[in-house]
């Protein structure tokens, strides 16, 4: 005969409500861990998916995700002769906020070096990948956009041709994949008035120096398209990504390119560490503290509930002592209830979490390690929380029955 | 009644229990000696504060005496305040307790309350189930076996409490005013039940009572006053 389950059966409504309450608390704890894992996943997702061995960024920056990076696109060609480099391609990444159907829409644009990189690595959930060099984009589902939707970015209208699942930026915004030149066009888009002002300013600057005085015909070139002026640099991109040939040491290739004075170079792991040690690390500590606080609150609540349940039974416990019940019988009664409370609460947390977490705006990733660890912690706090009740039970005097 | 020392359920000699010390010292039980044989039912009378309940806590091994010896079924249990055996085990194997209130565990059925007394003594579940039903039948409440205490009348609860007290074939049953919460008719029925139990189950029974109308049921009547025990003087 199990006294713990008999008592629970007798106080089923109270026990059920209590376990649901504990379950909800534990679900929040579970969710906190899941949010952290989600942050890590989102932070490293693009680095994982792109699969580049080496990331070349602007000198002394931690770009292109942790901070802004600007490097000339021709760097792509300069890396190709380096021994061990198989391919290299440009990469652009930045965030835009637009309004779509009256709602704010935040998107992180990723420019793919079409046709070298056609985004074949993208996890397409609906529609297709990029099929042409311009005016198409693949977006993540979390943006709310659908296949066939059209969105004006810069001066052009882009059609959604495919949807990905789970492709969000480190800040949780939906990723958009388009051809690199399109991404640059959106990034450096200027209004016609700004272009006219810039062209006029160039002509004025020309006449402020001796070149304008001696070669006045240059004013026609200065007032024209930027691409027509050799003195202006090539377009800028966020990073150049390099794939290393099989058999070559990635670190050795990275070291060689890293010796160039105008760039900083990171391996895939280095790039991930930049992301994780930046904003994710602070979030991890913040969430960790919340988790610890919630676990302490759960322990206190469980202890109080178990203490109250024990107080209700002090007379019965005194009676059990009087008729000679061993201490283990009384300890078992309280501790089994504590463990049941924790275990059922944990199961409720898991089931509710599986149901609710997918509706969270950012990814909540439950991993086995975290779940096992939390299960052990719940078991420990269940036992700890029963100590107060056990202490009270041990003080129950069998002679109380006679009074 | 023919009684021998082999038949002695309880032998207590020179029991004294003192609470407090110095000018707050209270002698609750003063040099009490008592013997109860198996099959004998003894009434313990006395006014409130006479020390009856304290004596019951000593005889029931709930508290140790300051001085004196307690021998149960031929085994010395307390020599002054020194326990000579595992007191809790001794209580569950040799004693049955009945009180003014039935004190049944509220979340267990009548049968389970009786089984509990046996199962905490490691008796097999099947055997304890069988004995619980036998006892409930013996005490006339078998049809209430699966009812929770809250569904039983006061008299039925008290019968279940008696059944629980008998579960482990006790040598000695201690009852503290078991009829105080019952009307006179039901009170007498319970007292007669104790007599039946003492004689048929061969247990020594000590009943603390204020009910002088049922004294004819007892084999012997003792009276306590100011912590001391003396034979009862009938009115």
Describe it for me?
The complex is a heterodimer of chains A (403) and B (235). Chain A is an alpha+beta fold and 403 residues long. Chain A has two domains: 165 residues, no CATH class; 226 residues, no CATH class. Helices cover 51% and strands 18% of the residues of chain A. Chain A has twelve helices and twelve strands. In chain A, the strands form two sheets. In chain A, strands 1, 3, 4, 5, 6, 7, 8, 9, 11 and 12 form a ten-stranded mixed sheet that branches. A two-stranded antiparallel ribbon of chain A has the order 2-10. In chain A, a hairpin with a 2-residue loop joins β3 and β4. The longest helix of chain A has 45 residues. Chain A is elongated and about 120 Å long. Chain B has 235 residues and is α/β, with parallel strands linked by helices. Chain B has one domain: 3-Layer(aba) Sandwich (Rossmann fold), CATH 3.40.50. Chain B is built from six helices and eleven strands. Chain B has a six-stranded mixed sheet with strand order 7-8-9-3-10-11. Chain B has a five-stranded antiparallel sheet with strand order 2-1-4-5-6, with helices on one face. The longest helix of chain B is centred in the C-terminal third of the chain and has 17 residues. The model of chain B has no long low-confidence stretch (mean pLDDT 85). Classes of the chains: A alpha+beta (403), B alpha/beta (235). Chains A and B meet through α1 and α10 of A and α1, α2, β7 and α3 of B.
Output the keywords.
heterodimer, A: 403 residues, alpha+beta, 2 domains, ten-stranded mixed sheet, two-stranded antiparallel ribbon, 12 helices, 12 strands, elongated, B: 235 residues, alpha/beta, Rossmann fold, six-stranded mixed sheet, five-stranded antiparallel sheet, 6 helices, 11 strands, globular
List the helices and strands and how they pair.
The complex is a heterodimer of chains A (403) and B (235).
Chain A: H1 3-10, H2 12-50, E1 54-58, E2 71-72, H3 75-79, E3 85-100, E4 103-112, E5 124-127, E6 136-140, E7 150-153, E8 156-164, E9 174-179, H4 180-187, H5 192-207, H6 210-214, H7 218-222, E10 236-237, E11 239-244, H8 250-258, E12 263-267, H9 268-312, H10 314-322, H11 327-356, H12 368-395
Parallel strand pairs in A: 4-9, 6-8
Antiparallel strand pairs in A: 1-11, 1-12, 2-10, 3-4, 3-11, 5-8, 6-9, 7-8
Helix pairs in contact in A: 1-11, 2-9, 2-11, 2-12, 9-11, 9-12, 11-12
Chain B: E1 8-19, E2 26-37, E3 41-45, H1 52-59, E4 67-72, E5 75-79, E6 82-83, H2 87-94, E7 95-99, H3 110-119, H4 125-138, H5 154-166, E8 172-176, H6 184-200, E9 204-208, E10 220-225, E11 228-231
Parallel strand pairs in B: 3-9, 3-10, 7-8, 8-9
Antiparallel strand pairs in B: 1-2, 1-4, 4-5, 5-6, 10-11
